[in-house]
Write a structure and sequence with these properties.
The chain is of the alpha+beta class. It folds into two domains: 11-68, Arc Repressor Mutant, subunit A (Orthogonal Bundle); 79-201, Glutaredoxin (3-Layer(aba) Sandwich). Helices cover 37% and strands 9% of the residues. The protein has seven helices and four strands. The chain has helices spanning 11-23, 31-42, 47-57, 61-68, 90-94, 97-108, 153-165; strands at residues 82-87, 121-126, 138-140, 143-145. Strands 2-1-3-4 form a four-stranded mixed β-sheet, covered by helices on one side. Helix 2 (31-42) packs antiparallel against helix 3 (47-57). The protein is elongated. The chain binds FE2/S2 (inorganic) cluster (FES). FE2/S2 (inorganic) cluster binds at residues 87, 89-92, 128-132, 135, 137.
């Protein structure tokens, strides 16, 4: 499949896949970055994503699923426009992560794995996101928020609500029907912020 074939993905992403596949001597090496890019555009790894990525990389759908299920940053169901991941692993837990997680549940009215009724947020309790030195930390799409306290939670959410309704919203979570896919913050894949946090997010 190339960028001119019928594709689930945008022409821009299809062309990006073609370039990726050409870059690797072994085409299947492009699998994980392709899945990350696909997730950024579609919102999650749907069955259709698995099928098309398998065709593009030249592996079976089962092989795609076997790889995809290994990586916790790849998800298999839709999330909110802003996906809030609260780390409750040891460093964060010792510095109050459980209270922060509870506050997010109260503010959003949802439990882990659930999307809010308006589709704006989803919440997930996660393992270490690589920001232990700044614990407790959370990740919202590709943004990190660290050294948190429970009373900062409402303000963080308010900031994203404001952003959601701003013209030309800079959401970094494509796949949400009213979202604007792609912006400066939406480079797919695990990425560190300016201070090098989140290396294993
Ligand atoms: S334990 Fe929370 S970021 Fe590492």
């Amino acid at each position: 499949m190339n960028s001119e074939s019928l594709s689930l993905f945008s022409p821009h992403l299809a062309a990006r896949f073609d370039a990726l596949a050409a870059r690797y001597t072994v085409k299947r090496s492009a699998l994980v970055p392709m899945l990350l890019y696909a997730q950024d555009e579609i919102g999650y790894i749907s069955d259709a994503v698995v099928v098309e990525v398998a065709q593009r990389v030249g592996v079976t759908e089962l092989e795609v699923r076997n790889v995809a299920t290994y990586y916790s940053m790849l998800r298999f169901r839709p999330v909110g426009r802003y996906h809030v991941q609260v780390c409750t692993n040891i460093s964060c837990m010792l510095r109050g992560a459980n209270e922060i997680y509870e506050r997010f549940q109260q503010e959003l009215g949802v439990a882990s794995g659930v999307v809010t009724a308006d589709g704006l947020f989803s919440l997930e309790e996660v393992e270490c996101i690589g920001a232990c030195s700044w614990a407790p930390a959370i990740q919202v799409n590709y943004d990190f928020h660290d050294e948190l306290t429970p009373w900062l939670v409402a303000g963080i959410l308010a900031g994203y609500r404001e952003k959601a309704w701003a013209p030309g919203d800079g959401s970094s979570s494509p796949g949400w029907e009213a979202g604007v896919p792609g912006d400066g913050a939406s480079s797919p894949g695990p990425q560190a912020d300016a201070e090098g946090k989140g290396r294993n997010a």
